[in-house]
Amino acid sequence: MEINGEILSALYEAVDETNLLLPENQQLTKDPDAALFGPDSALDSIGLVSFIIEAESTLSQALGKAITLADERALSRSHSPFRTLGTLVQYVEEQTANGCYKDPRAS
Amino acid sequence: MKTDMSIDFLLRVFKEYRDNDAIIWHDQVFSYKWLLDRVEYWSDRLLLEEVNPGTIVSIEADFSPNSVALFLSLLHGGNVVVPLATAQDTQRDDHMKLAQIEVAIHLKDNDEVSFFRTGVAANHKLLQRLKKSSTPGLVLFTSGSTGKSKAIVHDMLRILDKFKVRRNCLRMITFLLFDHIGGINTMLYILSNGGCMVTVRNRQPDTVLATVEQHQVELLPTSPTFMNLILISEAYKRHNLSSLRKITYGTEPMPETTLNRFHKLLPDIELLQTYGLSEIGILRSKSRKSGSSWMKIGGEGMSTRVINGRLQIKANSAMLGYLNAPSPVTADGWFDTGDAVEIDGEWIKVLGRESEIINVGGQKVFPAEVESAIQQMVGVAEVSVYGESNPITGSIVCATINPVGSVDPKAFGTEVRRYCSDRLPRYMVPMRIQVTDKSQHNTRYKKIRSRPAE
User: Fold this and answer.
1) Which of A17, A24, A49 to mutate to test the interface with B (most CBs of B within 10 A)?
2) Number of C-alpha atoms within 13 angstroms, CB side, residue B436?
3) In this predicted structure, what is the pLDDT of residue B68?
4) Contacts of residue A47 in chain B, CB cutoff 8 Å?
5) Is there a smaller number of Cβ atoms within 10 Å at the N or the C end of chain B?
């Protein structure tokens, strides 16, 4: 499946920002297939939340919409969107297509 | 009669110190002789205005010669006094209704007095209890920062009791407001010891410190937020503070860094923490040493205990109850302060309001601790820390910062987070940082810990 470049580069920007504060052994890799959160990832819950908040900010800026990643919708999925950067890109794309995010200027 | 006895001990002090300065207001000096005459004048005038014993009377004013004299005359006449600070306009109407004000007294900036009868007949059972026995009372309000403001009813005889023991005669600034338990405490402390009440025109750092210098003030009771403003504004460099022997601070937890910096810059001023609540009164407290946040609290008629890390107090001066909420006192008379504390033998340290603790994935974070770390960073003027709910860790730590000068918010935020990462456990590092130029304290110089409106 093709990866949405705009979303991925916004996530990469969040990775860079998050890595500044992560311990050496928890650094995230800029690779769509690398584990983000789960058994193969060194990231802990604090690291994940930190990345998500950063990603919400970079995505909102890139897409011009208020993006929320940490909510019931994402957390209640049987396949977590937070497995890899690639699955997260897919999730954001899907939510955007379904009109789940609003343009903050429209409200 | 009981009511005639209520402030007799104060009037005796006034006679004894009749030639001394009692109040300095707008650079005019009012002696104890003047105050004594004025209390008598207002007592007569209240009867003429048909303010009979047991009336619920509001006084809307800041500290001034007439507001002080009226306050005392109303107590003398067995009335219930409801001080309203003029700065608190937004809540004024709610407070008047809540306290069932029967007569409203308003003092203009020039100290001119007007009376207004509201037509209300107070019928709340706590107020009735005071009215029936013409026992002087006091109604104060909680700030309402965490919900609806609560009206607290005190029996003034119980509050006055501790002022019968003579202590130091000092020149003090009435910094805490007229409608605040700390402000009332300052006033009664000064007057019961023949000291001098130095009022201020406003509560800006330069005004307050200029007043210290001009009127040779010895004690300034204030808040940690204001002490920080003294440092940020560098007002201490512009005024001679050699008369100032002590600063007392209470009302909110003190960030250790503010305390240390203040102590280093002004080592000759003794810094003492006070502890009190509108519901209980101000406790006598003793700091472990100047500049330490460990203290011993208690005093005559007060007992303390710590249950599940929370401070409880039993006090003779405790309120009778709330007008609009159930009594929070346990069956055996203990009041739960809601303050989380640490204990070391007989010393205690207030960590913060338990309701303000941020729970990040099961780890407790006290806002004051994070604020204290951020405050040390060069380029930070003021900071407030609060929690925001998060579906993964329950809550996350957020901070709002006033930078010194203009900054790029994003780069500054990253810088702050890196600074914190080097000094705090990861769960305490703020995940979201807002940069603002709006002030982060209320009119009482107490920190507002919440997310600012966008």
Assistant:
1) A49
2) 17
3) 98
4) 426
5) C
